[in-house]
Design brief:
alpha+beta; Hypothetical upf0131 protein ytfp; 5-stranded antiparallel beta sheet
Amino acid sequence: MTKTMPGDSARFYYFAYGSCMCPVDLKRSLHENTHPYVIGPAQLKGYRLGFFRYSHRRQCGVLDIVRSSTATVYGVLYELPWHLSVLLDRREEGYVHHAVTIQCQGQRFPNTRTYTVLDKLSREHAPSDWYFDVVMRGALTCNLPEAYCWQLFNHMHSLQRQQQLAA
């Protein structure tokens, strides 16, 4: 199920679960319109989301995935041209990429690239309002399941609330 874009035959699959779910935000880093590369909403079984990285650049907690046998992470599956690989790695500084198997549109996509935090923190850190909005915009724009969007919203809101109460 490889989409071929004119002039670019070398491609890779990429599973985004955080701010990169938003094609508009991803375009900011990759300097290219990423909407044409969206395959659709996808699932990664055996993982859960957490905010186990603090981004000094963004001044907030940012998303990560951690193994969990009973959980599923929803996100967006992209098929990106290989020339964007270095820019994507640069955007995901502090993360390391590895291969996972993704479910999307009733098909399995083995050897799909995703990123996890290299040095995980022991507790979660709240996202900023800006990061919260970008993640939700990506989840809604790319049609993640409504129940999952609410779960994501509630988790981020809960972290922000805990941070406000602690301050």
